[in-house]
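Lab notebook: predicted structure, single chain.

Context: the supervisor wants predicted structures on file for every construct in the current expression panel, including those that have not yet been purified. This is the next one on the list. No modifications to the sequence; it matches the entry in the shared construct table.
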Amino acid sequence: MNAQAVKPKVRIATTSLAGCFGCHMSFLDIDERILPLLDVVEFDRSPLTDIKRCGPCDVGIVEGGVCNAENVHVLREFRNNCKILVAIGACAANGGLPAQRNHLDLRDILEEVYQTDPGVGHGGIPNDPELPLPLNQVHPIHEVVKVDYFLPGCPPPADAIWKFLTDLIAGRTPHLGHGLIHYD
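Prediction complete. Output recorded below exactly as produced.
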């Protein structure tokens, strides 16, 4: 009897930085299609596994921009563990909604939020070593690490994520035709 070699599963990890988690929700909207995906994919770090650290992976998917020192650390560690890195959604690709603060001075923002009305009420600007240091600007992830693929949208629709992943897993260059990408 000829035993066929079992092809190893593609290891995929995901992480979320400064964003709304909408891209992960869209990923979950692939619904029951995730079941056959599990035949060829093993999830490492993701909301599906609740694993907090990323091990060596074939594909890393990042949503959200980079707004603080912790985001920079997580993103660099994530990139170091992933052969292919995918920026998913507007926040990862160009900073998205969180980057709307980029035209404002960070000190002015913190004073407005923490020291003026309305707000938290004349407290002090938090200065605790447990809190990540905010960056002066929100950055798209390609300004911090090398990105191999961009999957645009806010969020990208589940069908686009499905097509992108199945192409990538099959060894094809992902191609999203008309109708799968929306910029609205």
